[in-house]
Every structure is written in C-alpha cells, then in structure tokens.
Description:
Blueprint: H1 5-45, H2 51-54, H3 68-72, H4 81-88, E1 95-101, H5 108-114, H6 119-129, E2 143-150, E3 156-164, E4 169-175, E5 181-187, E6 191-200, H7 205-211, H8 216-226, E7 241-250, E8 256-269, E9 272-280, E10 286-289, E11 309-312, E12 315-318, E13 325-328, E14 331-334, E15 340-342, E16 347-354, E17 360-366, E18 370-380, E19 389-390, E20 395-399, E21 409-416, E22 419-421, H9 436-456, E23 465-467, E24 473-475
Antiparallel strand pairs: 1-2, 2-3, 3-4, 4-5, 6-7, 7-8, 8-9, 9-10, 11-14, 12-13, 14-21, 15-20, 16-17, 16-19, 17-18, 18-20, 18-21, 21-22, 23-24
Helix pairs in contact: 5-6
Amino acid sequence: MRYSPSQYRSYIRALKRRRRGRRAVPWGFAALLLVFLGAYAVLQASNVPSAHTLGSQESRLEVSPLSEHAEKNNNGPASNPAARNAWEQDFGSLLEKKQITVSAGDTLINILHRAGLASPEAYQVVRELQKSFDPAKLRQGHELTLSFVNNQENNAVFQGLSLRLDVCREVQVTRRVGHGFQVRELAHELRTRPARAEAEITSSLYQAAQAADLPTEALLQVLRAYSYDVDFQRDIRPGDRIEVLYQERVDDRGKVAMTGPVMYAALHTNGRTLRIYRHECEDGGTGFFDGRGKSVQKALMVTPVEGASASSGYGMRKHPILGYNKMHEGLDFAAPSGTPIMAAGDGVVEYAGPRGSYGHYIRIRHPNQYQTVYAHMSGYVEGISRGARVKQGEVIGYVGSTGRSTGPHLHYEVRYAGSPVNPKEIDSPPGRKLEGEELQRFMASKNSLEELYASLGDDKHLARADEDSSGKLAMQ
C-alpha cells in the first residue's frame, strides 16, 4: 500500500508522539520515588524523642531571663514558640549527661568529635554557639556538659551542651524541636551567707587562719584593720585567738564563688580583746569601728607591708654592715622581694628615686607635719613620682634589697616636724567617731553581728543567710 506524502508525514508525527510518551514513563516514576523518599526522611526525623512523644514538664533550671541577644536574633523562646518548647523539654530517664572539664589544648570541635558527633553536626553546634561565645576562648578548667537522648532505636542522639563560663554565666546550645540548634545565655545569681572562723594561734596568724579555713581575702582584711594597733610579729603570742565573721557568695550549686567583706572580728592577745565591727555610715562611707564607735583607721599605719616580720626595731644598734653602733631611725620588715608596700597614710609624694645607701626610696608628706619614708625597695608602682597623691593602703612599691642592705626588707621611717619618731609610739587619733543617731544605729548593728556570730557556732558552713533590702545579713 502506497502513502501519499501528506499521509506519510502524519504517520511519522504519530510515531514520534508514541515514543515521547514511552520515554516520559521513567521520569514520572523517578519523581514519585523522590516524593516517597522525602516522606520517609520526615518520618525518621520524627522518631527522635521530643516534648510531644515523651511529655514535657516545667524546666528545673532556675535562671534569669534570656539574654537580649537571643531575643533579637530569634534564637530564644521569647520570640519563637517552637523554640520555647525545646528549652522546656524534660526527657527523664532517657537523658544522659557527660561532664567534661576542658584540658590544655582541647578545642570544642575535638571534644564534640570524641563524644561521637559527626563533623557536619559538630560544626553546626559551634556556629550556633558563636552567637553568644567565641569557642576560641575556651580555656583549660572550663566545665562542659553534653546531653544525649536515647531514641526509639536506643541510639544516643545529641541534644545539646551547657558551658559554664564562670560562677555567674552559662551558655547553652539546645536542639530545636524539628531541626537545627538554638543558643541562649543564662545569668546565675549568687546568694550571700555568713561564715564563721575561729582559731587558736600556735605559731603564726597566717597558719592559724589556714587551719580554720579562713580565706586569704578575709585574712587580709583583718590584717589591714588591725595594722593600726597591732604589730603582728611582736604582739602575737602562742595561745592567742582570732574570731572572724565574714560573708560568702555561693552559686546555685552551693559552691563558694567569692569571699565577701569581714563583718566582725575579735583578736584575743596579750590579755586584751580587740573587737572590730564593719559599719556603713549614712554618708555611704564604710569602715571598721571599735565597740565604742571609734574608727580603727588612724592617720598612719604601723605596718605598711603585709605578712612581713619585724627584723629590726627603732633605736641604737650595731649596724650589720658598717660594724659600729648607729641610730636606727625606723623599723625594718623582712619580706620576700616583690612584696607590695602600702602608703601608711593619705599624702603627697615628696621624693621617689635612688637615694644613696637607702637605695630606691620614697618619702610621703602627710597632714599635721608627718612624713613617712620607705627604703631599699626593688621598684615603684607606675605613677608614683613627685607630686602624686596617694591614699592610705595604696600600693606604692615593692620590697627589695637596693642600697646598703643585707637582704630583702623594707626600711620604714616616720618623721614628725622633720625629726624621726618611733612608728610604734605615735599617738595617732582615730579617723572618725560616731555620734548621736549614727552611734545608736551602730550599736544596734554591733549587737546583731555578735548574735549572728554566736548563732553560727562552730559549724560555720551549715548556716546560711541572704541579704535583705538594707544589705544586712538575715538568717534563713
């Protein structure tokens, strides 16, 4: 049978259409297969335990509101209801935590890899954490908690991490409900509680304080307060006792984060008892006062270097280098080289520099015609020069052995109207005396501090307290 040219062209077109239809079948099948695989992936993701499958409970972590950073970047529950559920999830017995203390040379990526996270997920966690904390600043000693949840196949699925930056700050990265991670920063509030320490001095006050677990910060406050009246090297004897009431600041885990101010102390020495009380005056000034409301701070300190031993007194002596008797016009305090030296009182620096046999030398002019001298120093604090004003207790230099010296020590002189006087015999008036209503308020506070100290007994760390609105300690 013969076809005309028009019929032949129609036949060819029909044949091409049938061939295109047969080729379209595999492509349609491939599209259906892709849809099926996507649905399967969603079902698998839904197998990870969540608040919907395990039930949610109120979070047990008591923290302050989330940082503004999380809210502004839609990373926190304040701006994302779905994210809020992620923070509130409680997986119960399915949750496992790994406590890690960062070691030298550790990086966050390495820690996550060792914990079993694949690289893509580990880098995703690090990128999210960078919104609140630079992982490059991870340091030895940082505390890290990794959380894992066992899914229906009993596989451990990474849920999040918590990084304790310090006693007050924590950063958390948590898996979102659905996919991805979110970060938030928590601020932990510190609680205040009183603590009591009491010790008998057998060899030195420092060793007694260590035996009584009295923090060094509190001991230094006590030394400064008593340094106007007590020579700790000559006045302290075996059998003397020290009592101290001070504040501690603890975190939400009960760990002591820092030592607060000393509130009360009593030094029983040489047959007398010296009691001091911390008091905040109405004008905002704070200091230590004796039982009659007189400030223990005097115009000049007897001992301007902490922890030093008196190696030579005031008066005639045989000079250790020159070999003949010579007037020693000050006090010598032996201490390790580099020990800080404090200004004995408020004043103006008259001289700071080398001065012959005195070595590195500072002279300060004080009110009421007094001067103090500091010699044989190893160096000066930056800014200490002629004309500089200094405050009592301010560090001005460091113990050394410059000039005519047999070893590291501070040579300390006090001069009145240009003539040397014995620093221990200065009748320096107290800096302040409370009167009227201020004195009555102090007396009430004084009695409260004594009662609080007695109530703590010997078990200082069991009693706790918080500050009330006035800043005073109130027992729980």
